[in-house]
Design brief:
- The chain is α/β, with parallel strands linked by helices and about 200 residues long.
- Helices cover about 35% and strands about 25% of the residues.
- α4 runs parallel beside α5.
- It starts with 7 loop residues before the first helix and ends with a helix.
Amino acid sequence: MAYDFRSARFWASEIIRGALPEGGCAVDATLGNGHDALDLAQLVGERGHVTGFDVQPEAVAASRARLEAAGVAQRCTLVLDGHQHMRDYLAPESADVVLFNLGWLPGAAHAVTTRTETTLQAVNAALEVLKFGGVLTICVYPGHDEGARERDALLAWAQALDQTRFDAMLRCYLNQHKNPPLLIAVKKNLRKAAQSV
């Protein structure tokens, strides 16, 4: 069987599965149609909790319907608000994982996308709500103008993170011309943070 490098979403899922314990706390910063929220709700189990954000009412409604159909809605809080406001809803250092899947709502108008300015605010907020040892994953879709801006801004943001407090990595294709999604992953480093105090 031939080995496949897979997609940014696959890699993000693999990282999250390794970082999110049963009974844990997860944040879906971009609900979309609720696929990621459902995966997170199944991973955290009955004792865990997922908080999801989206600015589009149809995204929140679609996510709620998907979670209810799977019987896991009681584990989730869905918030009709921008992800840059997550600190208004979550305590500092309360989340095991925060997941971003940037771009537009699948099946909706492509004119409504995540925006570079609010995305940068949101990823900084995510670092504050992450527990030490927690993981942030960001799938970036650079195939449109705003996505390319987000990619460039997020790469600069991740490269500038303090290496004594965070580990940041990039996973992407280097020779694909259709601008496939890329993954930025950040770990809030327990050991290094403790040593730097």
